[in-house]
Design brief:
The complex is a heterodimer of chains A (269) and B (329).
Chain A (H helix, E strand, L loop, with lengths): L4 E12 L7 E13 L4 E5 L6 H8 L7 E6 L2 E2 L5 H7 L3 E4 L3 H4 L6 H11 L5 H14 L16 H13 L5 E5 L7 H18 L2 E6 L2 H7 L2 E6 L2 E7 H6 L4 H9 L14
Parallel strand pairs in A: 3-8, 3-9, 6-7, 7-8
Antiparallel strand pairs in A: 1-2, 1-4, 4-5, 9-10
Helix pairs in contact in A: 4-5, 4-6, 5-6
Chain B lengths: L4 E11 L5 E12 L4 E5 L6 H8 L7 E10 L2 E2 L5 H7 L4 E4 L3 H4 L6 H12 L4 H15 L4 H5 L8 H13 L5 E5 L7 H18 L2 E6 L11 E6 L2 E7 H6 L4 H8 L5 H4 L14 H4 L29 E2 L5 E2 L7
Parallel strand pairs in B: 3-8, 3-9, 6-7, 7-8
Antiparallel strand pairs in B: 1-2, 1-4, 4-5, 9-10, 10-12, 11-12
Chain lengths: 269, 329
């Protein structure tokens, strides 16, 4: 099977400062190589500042890479011009951590979900409306609340709107950047179930960026561990949490509440 | 032993702009012994942050303590004058806020922000204040104390800012610290570091701690006792080990079941749906006062009586209690 997305040696450098000649270069990503297969979930874990979110932005074509190449399906996205990237973006959608700040507070749930269809001029007006309604129902929001604005919803419901919006353009790949982190435990469980359900019914592929190793182990087929812009370990979710190879992974497992620590005890090999 | 803090029948309500009043906390009673750590566990809307603010009498203008008593070191805080309160807050009783980036002044070096707290409560000379601030910083930072003291908040990481807030809280040697989700915005590794720091400080300064959180996993091995809140009520209370490992209230049971399984168990139901609490916490809060159990609309074990009255706290044994009719004989 061919991978849906492939990254080869991706690097990203940011320049900071510079106002007084103190230009500094920050290496956010270096030598990142991996593939994701269709209908699977790749969890990306790592401490704060390890480059997880930068990677998400590069994969979503929202930040240009400094070097390296990214393929989506058979297209090399990093070689595309602005026009070409615009055409590919609908297939790669993102859901952010805080729905309170990622959703326009002055738009209704229905408007928020149909906006991507307006922007990309898909379908005619009544059809957009119908599709948006269907999507809201799909993610488990009551139909009668379609006209409500984000502040009339709870945190979990807002994140459902964000997911419905991301699904509007029928993407193949969904990048979830800490999408569950801000939610209560009981709501996280509801959202995790929704993600599992959507993946099975729509054939979605997920990049699931998180701090939460227990949730990563539950949702992901593969886990990639990042530190200082590099992918230090990647493998089947099962083997990463039960037989961690890299020191960073061990450290993350030790810190993770609720993850079984037996894998970390000295092995009798 | 007289408790350090004794909260009796606390009831807090907020008045909306429309004049409508809603109860955020009702019938909250608990006591805290010196040196004890109490974990307050609750999700959004459970009233846990209201509890933190009420304990220090720092409710917003539309919040009101309607009933109850808060005895701290033998003094009734609800009868204290504003001057007396000013002396207690920050000195004997300190609060750590949720968002370290908002709680610090962005344009003052952190050592000075700690010195300000000390200067407000102690009549030290300026030099002594500065020295004391340095000592406190050294207690919370393992290294680079000088550099960090001279930094502005934006130059520090989230974990370092959390440490600065802790330094402020302990600077005057309080007997009780109320910490409102101090680690919510930190990554798990930094969370564990902050918890470890608290463990050390608790011993060193003989502190009592009220640790408010939405994450039950953070309380394991950290809190001595746990208070579980749902929709403004205390639904369960008891020793942390027994509440977290054998919860007795249907809400606590459902909440703990929601957590993603630990990895050993998890492999069997990898990518399978997790058990959830049906419904939204939001909706059930609207239930009318006193005439039904607040959790009843989402409860899997509901009985007829649950819609008729509100359950009272039932002592299951000398330390563990749950407010649920299923424990009534």
């Amino acid at each position: 099977m061919e991978p849906l997305l492939r990254a080869e040696n991706v690097a990203k450098r940011f320049e900071s400062g510079g106002a007084f000649g103190s230009r500094q270069e920050v290496r956010a990503l270096a030598g990142v190589t991996f593939s994701i297969f269709p209908r699977t979930t790749l969890a990306v874990v790592g401490p704060s500042g390890s480059g997880k979110s930068t990677l998400a932005l590069c994969l979503a074509c929202l930040e240009p890479v400094s070097s390296g190449r990214i393929w989506f399906a058979r297209t090399e996205v990093t070689a595309l011009d602005a026009e070409g990237q615009r055409a590919i973006r609908p297939s790669i959608q993102m859901v952010f951590q805080d729905p309170a700040s990622s959703l326009n507070p002055r738009m209704s749930a229905l408007e928020l979900v149909s906006e991507p269809l307006n922007i990309h001029k898909r379908f005619d007006k009544p059809e957009r409306r119908d599709r948006a309604c269907d999507l809201l129902q799909r993610v488990g929001l009551p139909r009668e609340k379609a006209a409500h604005r984000p502040d009339e919803f709870s945190g979990g419901q807002r994140q459902r709107i964000a997911i419905a919006r991301a699904l509007a353009l029928e993407p193949k790949l969904l990048i979830l950047d800490e999408a569950l982190s801000a939610l209560d435990c009981s709501v996280q469980a509801q959202m995790a179930n929704l993600l599992i359900d959507l993946q099975a019914s729509l054939g979605l592929t997920y990049v699931f960026i998180t701090h939460d190793l227990a949730m990563a182990a539950h949702l992901a087929d593969e886990i990639a561990v990042m530190e200082r812009g590099q992918m230090v370990e990647m493998g089947a979710a099962w083997s990463v949490v039960n037989a961690p190879q890299h020191a960073v992974t061990r450290r993350l497992l030790l810190a993770a509440p609720g993850v079984c620590h037996s894998a970390l005890e000295p092995q009798a090999v | 032993m007289t408790p350090l803090l004794d909260v009796q029948n606390l009831r807090v309500s907020y008045t909306a702009r429309s004049g409508q009043s809603s109860t955020a906390l009702a019938n909250v009673s608990f006591a805290l012994q010196p040196g004890e750590t109490l974990g307050v566990l609750g999700e959004s809307g459970s009233g846990k942050s209201t509890l933190a603010a009420a304990l220090l009498r720092l409710l917003p203008a539309n919040g009101r303590i309607e009933r109850g008593a808060i005895y701290f070191e033998g003094q009734d805080l609800l009868r204290a004058t504003p001057r007396e309160l000013e002396k207690i807050r920050g000195d004997r009783l300190a609060l750590i806020f949720q968002e370290p980036s908002l709680a610090l002044h962005p344009a003052i070096r952190v050592a000075e922000q700690i010195a300000d707290v000390i200067a407000a409560h102690k009549s030290f000379a300026r030099r002594a204040v500065r020295e004391h601030a340095q000592q406190i910083l050294a207690a919370v930072f393992p290294s680079e104390v000088k550099r960090i003291g001279n930094s502005y908040p934006h130059q520090l990481s989230g974990g370092q800012r959390a440490r600065v807030l802790i330094a402020q809280a302990i600077s005057c040697g309080p007997s009780l610290i109320v910490a409102d989700e101090p680690t919510a915005s930190l990554d798990p590794e930094t969370q564990q570091e902050i918890l470890a720091l608290f463990r050390a400080l608790r011993q060193k300064f003989d502190l009592s701690v009220i640790w408010i959180t939405h994450n039950p996993l953070l309380l394991e091995g950290f809190a001595d006792r746990v208070l579980v809140c749902y929709a403004g009520r205390v639904v369960e209370t008891g020793p942390a080990s027994s509440v977290l490992s054998s919860p007795r209230h249907p809400y606590t049971q459902a909440l703990l079941r929601c957590l993603p399984p630990s990895t050993e168990r998890g492999l069997a139901n990898h990518k399978q749906c997790l058990p959830v609490i049906p419904g939204e916490a939001f909706v059930s809060v609207a239930a009318a006062e006193g005439c039904r159990c607040r959790f009843e609309p989402r409860c899997m074990e509901r009985m007829v009586i649950c819609t008729e009255r509100e359950p009272e706290m039932i002592q299951l044994n000398s330390t563990h209690g749950a407010s649920c009719f299923k424990h009534v004989d």
